[in-house]
């Protein structure tokens, strides 16, 4: 820093202000300092900075099964929002979320002196694991914290399923069949609740849901069952990958979509608009989730967890050509 100050003809305090984007620096002075930084190839010593400020400018993220679209997209949204806020991210991806694995992950992140932690906890079994969050550490949970004393950001899964189901009912379908996600997932519970409540509010019969596990193979198996049933005209799959499997099974059985059966998914994965036919689905805004997570976490870092926050992000329905009026 002293070399930069000498090169630019300013004090080292001025160099510090430029590096920290302080507003009280004249434009000409800032340009001179930035030019000196470029010429000298100066890079800040983040370790030394952390020793002085007692902040590492690093946030920890604990996630589960980042091979799935939802968790992976949430982690990506969080990482992008953190980078925009000037923070690095250290990610720990777990094969399963339980108290022991979360505790180990938090210990690992504590060794890196992270300033705060985001836990992506989509399963009901994660509730006990959240008790492992150490007191006094700024923390936010994504899609979890039901009843836990920790701030949370989530997408309204119930409303998303209601949007999908009401869309099909509004098209004139008598009822809507549902292919669920795996048990113990909060998203599965929320989507079943929204689907069921929409049918009950409309006074329509509630068919027995078909179990799934988020995979196209599970959707394919459910689709083969549905193709052989009479009276099925509308299907809501709990994610787009299972909807893809449903579409494949219906196509192989010679059942036209949406001519005979309309299909709706959930997630709006990038490929869904290129399915055959393009898939009507529920979009989750993971960028907004990530931004809210970082905003809540930074408020805790700056002011302490004085009050727990719970932010709910609304989903939206994306209508494409896999749905049509019932017949």
TrEMBL record:
Superkingdom field: Bacteria
SUPFAM superfamilies, per database record: lambda repressor-like DNA-binding domains, Periplasmic binding protein-like I
Domain called HTH lacI-type: residue spans: 1-53
Species this chain originates from: Nonomuraea spiralis
Keyword Transcription regulation belongs to the record: yes
Molecular-function GO terms, alphabetical: DNA binding
Protein name listed in UniProt: LacI family DNA-binding transcriptional regulator
Signal sequence interval, chain numbering: none
Pfam families: LacI, Peripla_BP_3
This protein's UniProt keywords: DNA-binding, Transcription, Transcription regulation
PANTHER family with a match to the protein in the record: HTH-TYPE TRANSCRIPTIONAL REGULATOR GALS (PTHR30146:SF109), LACI-RELATED TRANSCRIPTIONAL REPRESSOR (PTHR30146)
